[in-house]
Amino acid sequence: MKLKNKTKIILLVLIVIIIFLAFFLKNNYKNLKVGNNMSNKSIEEFEQYILNISSYEAKIEMIVNSNKTTNKYVILQTYEKPNKTKQTVIEPSNIEGLETEYDGQNLIIKNTKLNLSKIYENYENLVNDCMTLESFISSYDTLKEKNKTKIYEENDNVIMEVEEETNNYIYNKTLYISRETGIPSKLLVEDINGEEVVYILYNEIEIK
Q1: Rounded CA gap, 186 and 181, in Å?
Q2: Cis upstream peptide for 184 (omega within 30°)
Q3: Which residue has the higher pLDDT, 16 or 165?
Q4: Cα–Cα distance between 143 and 136 in angstroms, integer?
Q5: Per-position b or e across 154-192, b if 16+ CB within 10 A of its CB
Q6: How many whole angstroms separate alpha carbon 188 and alpha carbon 174?
Q7: Distance of CA 168 to the CA centre of its chain
Q8: Residues 6 or more apart from 167 whose CB is under 8 A from it?
């Protein structure tokens, strides 16, 4: 009787292990398949993939250079098409918890530590923000017809560039995307003199 119980337990454990392995292999095969699909895409397909991003969540490290000073930030960003965006500061500690939300019309700035908020109605300037992926996509998509964009491959990356002639401070924006995964790795913003104004590193990003 004890032997039968032990046999049942062993069989049950084996079944659980088999189910777990099947699930694990299926997910890994799916991820591998997605990666292979991205690596096999043409440069034009890569371009369309980025331009058609509808939402994402990202944890970024951002360095801003201005007036001979350099400031570093860690920020959580979320975006949902067509224009709903949110940014939450994690670092530095003196502005930790500062949130900005935009719903396509109104801008809301919150200080969660002080429980304060301010609403700016009919705010349109956020669409020109150089610190978000969606702003890059919007600029690239708009200026593509004017031949102010470039896309090419370099060192296992697909690189997309857009030239903003109307803004000397935010003149050139360059997005680096992994050729293997299709995931953005960094975004650089330069002024008209080629000086780096903003450097964004995508430490974590989930594209939906």
Answers
A1: 14
A2: no
A3: 165
A4: 11
A5: eeebbbbbbbbeeeeebbbbebbbbbeebbbeebbbbbe
A6: 5
A7: 25
A8: 128
Side chain identity, residue 197: V
55-69, 104-118, 152-166, range with the lowest pLDDT? 104-118
Beta-carbon count within 10 A of 25 CB: 10
Give the integer Cα–Cα distance in Å for 36 and 59. 25
Average pLDDT, the chain: 81
Beta bridge partner(s), residue 152: 159
Provide φ and ψ at 89, rounded to 5°: -80, 130
Q: Quick count: other Cβ atoms within 10 Å of Cβ 26?
A: 10
pLDDT of residue 56: 94
pLDDT at 165: 77
DSSP bridge pairs for 101: 86, 108
What is each CA distance from 168 to 67, 189, 199, in whole angstroms?
Answer: 15, 11, 17
> Residue 170 has what DSSP assignment?
S
- Please give the share of the chain, as a percent, with pLDDT higher than 70: 77
pLDDT for the residue numbered 29:
42
Contacts of 135 (CB under 8 A, 6+ apart): 127, 128, 129
pTM, 2 dp: 0.77
